[in-house]
Design a protein that fits this description.
CATH superfamily of the largest domain: Hexapeptide repeat proteins
Order of helices and strands: HEHHEEEEEEEEEHEEEEEEEEEHH
Radius of gyration: 19 Å
Number of strands: 19
Number of domains: 2
CATH class of the largest domain: Mainly Beta
Strand order of the largest sheet: 2-5-8-13-16-18-19
Length: about 210
């Protein structure tokens, strides 16, 4: 069993292993290149993200600067937007569903370390996967800790530290992050009314804009 196998299985592994160190160095080179690229070079930036990540969904995007451990353990669904200065420590899988919004300086940290200081000093560590289900909105400087799943449609307030699973369809905040309330049809009604007002004033977005461009 290789150190990479142990890492992927969520077991203790040695992070200083030569093969893992080489893989992290490759991710550093790719993220460095990405962060230096011409902002107008959409095709080049997309190609580099496809090389870095395990999966880049359709119409998904990461604003620089961006940092990760491996990249290959990150999968993005369709229509994902990750804003400036985010850090993903992907020693375990980071799985992000469709239409997820991640605000600036958010961190997804799958890496963890033994509680015992002697074992921790030996360089052994482990990881637990993180999942953001579809339509999650993660606020600025929020931190998601190892092993956490955030349910579909939930909103995590800025600055929150998410240490345990969050169910679908809620607003949550704090350190540690706790559910404040369930998102309801009344919330939707408020924003649906404002969307209709936007459209009535001549605003165009989404599919309507795309059709204009075809």
């Amino acid at each position: 069993m290789t150190e990479q196998d142990r890492m992927h299985a969520g077991q203790l592994y040695y992070a200083g292993n030569e093969a893992l160190s080489a893989a992290r160095d490759q991710a550093k080179r790719l993220t460095w290149r990405y962060n230096q690229m011409d902002p107008a070079d959409w095709n080049g930036r997309t190609a580099l993200l496809q090389e870095l990540l395990g999966r880049l969904g359709k119409d998904s995007w990461i604003e620089p600067s961006f940092r990760c451990d491996y990249g290959s353990n990150i999968t993005l669904g369709n229509g994902v937007f990750i804003n400036y200065d985010c850090v993903f420590l992907d020693v375990a899988p980071i799985t992000i569903g469709d239409r997820v919004l991640i605000a600036p300086q958010a961190g997804l940290y799958t890496a963890s370390h033994p509680l015992d200081p002697e074992i921790r000093a030996s360089g052994l560590e482990f990881g637990r996967p993180i999942t953001l289900e579809s339509d999650v909105w993660l606020g600025g400087r929020a931190v998601v800790c190892p092993g956490v799943t955030i349910g579909s449609g939930s909103i995590i307030a800025a600055g929150s530290v998410v240490t345990r699973d969050i169910p679908a369809g809620v607003l949550a905040a704090g350190s540690p992050c706790r559910v404040l309330r369930t998102l309801t049809d009344a919330d939707r009604a408020v924003w649906e009314r404002q969307r209709r007002e936007y459209e009535a004033s001549g605003g165009r977005y989404g599919a309507a804009v795309s059709q204009d461009q075809n």
